Amino acid sequence: MKEEKSFKHWADSIAEKLEERANTDPILAKVVAEKGYFVYDEKTPSGKIHIGAGRGWVIHDAVAKALRARGLKAKFVLSSDDMDPLDKMPVDADAKKYEKYMGAPFMNIPSPVSGYKSYAEYYFRQATDKFAEFGIECELASTGQDYIDGKFNRTIKIALDNSDKIREIYKRFSRKGSIGTERIPFNPICEKCGRIATTLVTEWDSKREVVKYKCLPDFVPWAKGCGYEGERSPYNGGGKFPWKVEWAAKWPTHGVIMETAGKDHFSAGGSRSVAIAISDEVFDYPPPYPSTRKKTGDGYEFFTIGGRKMSTSKGRGISFSDMTDYAPATMLRYLLVKTRPRAVIDFDPVGTNKMILLFEAYDKTERIYFGKDAVDNERELAHEKRVYELSHIGPVPKTMPAQIPFTHATMLVQILPDIKSVVDSLKSTGHLSENLSSDDEKYVTGRLTFVKKWVAEFAPEEYKFVVNEKVPDDVMKSFSDAQKDALTMLAESLRKKKMAEDELYNEFKRICSETGLAPKEFFRTCYVALLGKERGPKLVSLIVAVGQERVAKVLVTLE
Ligand SMILES: [Zn+2]
Hints:
single chain, 559 residues, alpha/beta, Rossmann fold, 4-stranded parallel β-sheet, 47% helix, elongated, binds zinc ion
């Protein structure tokens, strides 16, 4: 039993814990019986959404898939927090145009680009339109629409009737003098100016179920309220909770059993702590995994690109939607599924060989899945198989897709004129089967197209080269007689007959012994002559790929 436990993928372990919760907590048992397992995440569509949030989406998706793999009814829902106010000038849209919308809900602000219902929809869809590519199966929701549809009406009443309790919780967790602790926890939309960030509730009339409010010019420094005073129903889209209360209110409203977030939300006394206290003490609902009524639990670690923690609000770094320009979605999903949520991921695809290593790791996992590569033990086998299943986009195929040797491919894309020639070369060297299925042909072409882009845009110098037309004069002069002889002998034998890689290698040995050059010196000489660099791709492969005749022609200029 003990050993079996260690086989589990993290998503399966979480799914198991969720099932345990549903079986032991009477509130959750009822919710799950009615709706199934509700895995939830949310995002404010304030601008370009950075890649770090994508980690959360893949985690929630993997857990929902793991629940379904246990035969349970489960879904992942991602909600756009589109009732949140615009609180910073957008960095990638016409800021001047948006000045008047500061403090208004994102769902009521026009999109910076035509074809979208609102500012909120535009930015949300920048990310969610990529979900299919990432294999994320997810139902999309709008928190603003949930308010309008009255889904929060019950929790709004409970919260307003218990605002003393909520204020007490805020005070318990905030540092002395923090703002907000004295307020009634609700932000109505001003009926005159439409802003939501500028309103202060002065009274909750529980009998008539209306809030009295003021729209204040100096309530927040970044948005100016219109001065209106009025009263309105808080229900059906009349306003929203402050966000920590909203976070807590969502859980009983939807029946959420799992919702995690980045670890910055989980700090001691942070927003998650406040939300779980409100969920427990005000709404009497067990907070979702990884929290309990008493413990905050741990959020997932940062996902950074190239060592920088990226922030959407600062407008820096790579967004979720732009990330596929740097790495294929399949590879990113694999990286996120393979890594436990509590481990930091710092992925730097630019100027390093990490991208190639990631492709190779994926292919190794794939070979293990299909029984083509051996593993050390059962545990590793079980782990790799599950990683493959959870990271594969779409149904896992019956037979293994065609694989390509990546490092070798980085060389071919630089020598050959197009991808088709690269495929042909890989077939002629036996790296690919002569009769690829059309699916495999398409798959391989896609990967090679990415390799070509990677070499051109992101590869470190050691992967890049250009084959000389002729050896430059100064290089030629720098060679010793033995070096010149070696190159001439190589050119002659390349012209004599077509050689396989092993025959070529034997030829190298012969030339070394006849000229007295050490093998290391021989290889260096060839690279300098052919590429103008001290090192290069495996010499036999390079010669085969470039073609014996063309190599001989470069070397013969030495004569
Ligand atoms: Zn107003």
